[in-house]
Write a structure and sequence with these properties.
The protein is α/β, with parallel strands linked by helices and 167 residues long. It has a domain of 113 residues: Dihydrofolate Reductase, subunit A, CATH 3.40.430.10. It is 20% helix and 33% strand. The strands form two sheets. Strands 1, 3, 4, 5, 6, 7, 9, 10 and 11 form a nine-stranded mixed sheet that branches. Strands 2-8 form a two-stranded antiparallel ribbon. The longest helix has 11 residues. The chain is globular and about 40 Å long. The chain binds NADP nicotinamide-adenine-dinucleotide phosphate.
């Protein structure tokens, strides 16, 4: 199973504030949609709650991780640990599996990821409270593809693909 992190981050690898994103980039949302459609999503309960209406994303399998034993949400598969999430995701092979946040899930899943799609936004979000690991500081990760910079809503951003090597 290939596990892929997909996330948009600022220059300091900040990704969110007060349970929400710090930016609005329709181009990035379109990239996220076309990349993940038909795949399996792994997410924390707070990220599910941040989606419109707290609803799962359509045309994808939504696996939600929570400690709450009685948690239920229409259209979601609920698990209670990283291990359970990984073994459930595996049953959908060969569908690709995407780690879609938030901070706690990116951190716990990164050791199992072999690829990452990072939308690098060339800005510094104001007072963010959620961050991911800086892949540029990890020797095992390297950039394999990088788009030209794009502009939208006054923000400059690039799509950067990383791969984890054997180091
Ligand atoms: N920029 C981006 O691309 C992007 C993408 C996604 C999210 N975000 C942002 O990230 C923020 C949310 O991230 P977050 O770190 O606060 O929350 P999160 O990772 O989405 O969810 C945290 C919750 O997941 C559950 N959980 C985590 N690890 C678990 C484990 N090992 N076993 C069982 N349950 C576990 C717990 O749910 P319970 O409390 O129910 O037990 C925990 O409270 C928001 O600001 C969101 O907008 C940004």
């Amino acid at each position: 199973m290939e596990l892929i992190e997909i996330v948009a981050a600022d220059r300091n690898w900040a990704i969110g504030k007060d349970g929400d994103m710090c930016h609005h980039l329709p181009e990035d949302m379109a990239f996220f949609r076309r990349t993940t459609l038909g795949g399996v999503l792994l997410m924390g309960r707070k990220t599910l709650d941040s989606f419109p209406g707290g609803k799962p994303l359509p045309k994808r399998i939504n696996i939600v991780i929570t400690h709450q034993k009685d948690f239920e949400r229409e259209g979601c598969l609920v698990v209670h640990s990283v291990e359970e999430a990984l073994s459930l995701a595996q049953t959908f092979a060969p569908k690709p599996v995407f780690v879609v946040g938030g901070g706690t899930i990116y951190r716990q899943m990164l050791p199992f990821c072999t690829k990452a799609y990072i939308t690098k936004i060339d800005t510094t979000f104001e007072a963010p409270d959620t961050f991911i690991d800086n892949l540029d500081a990890l020797a095992s990760w390297r950039v394999i593809e990088e788009s030209a910079p794009m502009e939208q809503n006054g923000l400059s951003f690039r799509f950067v693909t990383y791969e984890r090597g054997s180091q």
